[in-house]
């Protein structure tokens, strides 16, 4: 597979997954969603039509188009984290970069909003928001009005305002009614609002954290906070104290807050700590109906199953990073010995050739072939898949089980292709690559997601399962369209992963 084909397939596949996910999650937020879908459709069109009209550049063009669509999202997410950490100028800069990458009116407005929110004092933030409101468009007024009420800490004002105006689109905007209803002690209404927008409540969303804290779910709040790596300690203490107060454990919350009240905090963080000391969170006990409690129990169980990794860096998934390092090291040996796409070179280094294994009994090739790759594109695509899936599986089932699924699944995949070749059902070839092992990881996590969905029927579990199905369908289409990719190896690896997950009992394994 040449570089242009690799880039076009990667960009087109990612866009296809993005489009399918919109319809699976039913995240219809007009008019923004129309622009989003159109952009990804253009990426797919470039990937398909470019092959015919611009074969020398179509991969680069598809990749650049995809980058222009997806880059603002990570930049704005990072800007949110920087703003939360008190690094206001850096947050405004990232928002500005996002607007330059995708120069739409919405992105330019977002950059201006971040600039206003990056002012040092509350009075300066209010003045900047007022000035922005004078020049803002009608569809931007709701966000600006809510931000002004938020800066003034007029929580009841937000509740009254949202009763007259629709909630703006997006998971961040759902945080406005949840925070306002929680601060005013209207917990039943808060849970009802969350239930209406449950599709936007995820394990990485601040709105989910606030909901659990205001309802006194201390353990779930602590679990989520452990995953917010960039959140300042003082902000974590604020939400821990909120959960403790709501759970009638105020004697633990007050010293926690007072320990930060005199610390070196940003003005916004200090204001929040002092406000929580002056007005503790309402007690949750006795305020919630059985229906609301059931919803919270369901959400808490989902958080326990799917909370992001608690650790950062290599400690988050040591086996995954070790496998990536091993694959890259072996590829370095390939480069040292010659052409990485040459079949003879790959065979000398341990590629799987049926006659060498069966006739000469070189069974070690079943393992060595898993760490060889035919060209940099082959290596990069597999290592991206291993990075994404390996971390997920390792966080879910543990490092030892993840490593066993990878190695045994890869061996079974290689052995399966060998058996089919010997039976005359597939053509003999030098087989290399980690994709069979990676598909074993997909099989393992697919069984886990299916088990979670069947046990809970939670909408988020349905979304997780649907996304895996979408990825599998797109990968199957790519495998069948490109003869260089072994559909057989992928299929055997996937089935092996399901079987291994069942044998190891990882379908309902607790997080490590």
UniProtKB/TrEMBL annotation:
It is found in: Membrane. GO terms for cellular component: membrane. It is a multi-pass membrane protein. InterPro entries: Peptidase_S54_rhomboid_dom (IPR022764), Rhomboid-like_sf (IPR035952), Rhomboid_protease_S54 (IPR050925). Signal peptide: none annotated. GO terms for molecular function: serine-type endopeptidase activity. Pfam families: Rhomboid (PF01694). Residues 361-505 form the Peptidase S54 rhomboid domain. The chain crosses the membrane at residues 6-24, 33-51, 57-77, 314-336, 363-390, 402-424, 430-447, 459-478, 484-504. It comes from the Bacteria. Keywords: Hydrolase, Membrane, Transmembrane, Transmembrane helix. The keyword Transmembrane helix applies. Coiled coil: none annotated. Belongs to the peptidase S54 family. This is Peptidase S54 rhomboid domain-containing protein. It comes from Labrys okinawensis. The lineage of its organism: Bacteria, Pseudomonadati, Pseudomonadota, Alphaproteobacteria, Hyphomicrobiales.
């Amino acid at each position: 597979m040449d570089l242009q084909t690799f880039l076009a397939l990667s960009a087109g596949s990612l866009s296809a997954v993005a489009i399918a996910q919109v319809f699976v999650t039913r995240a219809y937020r007009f008019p923004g969603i129309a622009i989003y879908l159109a952009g990804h459709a253009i990426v797919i069109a470039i990937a398909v039509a470019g092959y015919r009209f611009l074969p020398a550049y179509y991969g680069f063009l598809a990749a650049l188009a995809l980058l222009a669509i997806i880059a603002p999202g990570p930049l704005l997410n990072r800007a949110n984290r920087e703003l939360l950490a008190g690094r206001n100028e850096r947050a405004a800069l990232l928002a500005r970069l996002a607007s330059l990458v995708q120069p739409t009116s919405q992105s330019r407005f977002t950059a201006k909003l971040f600039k206003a929110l990056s002012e040092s004092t509350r009075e300066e933030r209010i003045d900047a928001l007022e000035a922005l409101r004078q020049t803002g468009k009608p569809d931007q007024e709701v966000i600006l009005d809510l931000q002004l009420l938020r800066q003034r800490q007029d929580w009841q004002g937000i509740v009254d305002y949202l009763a007259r105006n629709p909630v703006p689109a997006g998971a961040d905007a759902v945080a406005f009614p949840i925070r306002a209803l929680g601060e005013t002690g209207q917990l039943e209404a808060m849970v009802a609002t969350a239930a209406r927008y449950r599709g936007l409540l995820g394990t990485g969303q601040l709105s989910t954290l606030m909901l659990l804290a205001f309802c006194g779910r201390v353990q779930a709040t602590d679990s989520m906070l452990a995953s917010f790596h960039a959140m300042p300690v003082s902000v974590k203490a604020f939400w821990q104290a909120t959960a403790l107060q709501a759970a009638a454990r105020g004697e633990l919350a007050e010293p926690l807050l007072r320990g930060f009240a005199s610390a070196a905090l940003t003005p916004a963080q200090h204001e929040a700590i002092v406000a929580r000391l002056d007005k503790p969170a309402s007690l949750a006990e006795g305020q919630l109906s059985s229906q609301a409690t059931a919803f919270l129990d369901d959400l808490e169980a989902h958080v326990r199953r799917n909370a992001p990794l608690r650790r950062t860096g290599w400690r988050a998934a040591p086996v995954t990073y070790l496998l990536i390092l091993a694959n890259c090291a072996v590829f370095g040996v390939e480069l040292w010995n010659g052409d990485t796409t040459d079949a003879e070179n790959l065979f000398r280094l341990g590629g799987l050739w049926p006659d060498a294994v069966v006739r000469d009994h070189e069974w070690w090739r079943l393992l060595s072939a898993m760490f060889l790759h035919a060209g940099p594109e082959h290596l990069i695509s597999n290592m991206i898949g291993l990075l994404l899936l390996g971390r997920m599986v390792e966080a879910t089932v543990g490092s030892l089980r993840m490593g066993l699924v990878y190695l045994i699944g890869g061996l079974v995949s290689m052995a399966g292709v060998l058996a089919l070749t010997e039976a005359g059902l597939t053509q003999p070839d030098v087989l290399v690559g980690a994709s069979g092992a990676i598909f074993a990881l997909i099989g393992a996590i697919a069984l886990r997601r299916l088990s979670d969905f069947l046990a809970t029927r939670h909408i988020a579990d349905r979304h997780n399962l649907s996304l895996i199905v979408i990825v599998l369908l797109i990968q199957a289409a790519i495998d069948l369209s490109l003869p260089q990719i072994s559909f057989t190896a992928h299929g055997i690896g996937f089935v092996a992963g399901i079987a291994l997950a069942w044998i190891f009992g990882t379908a309902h394994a607790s997080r490590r």
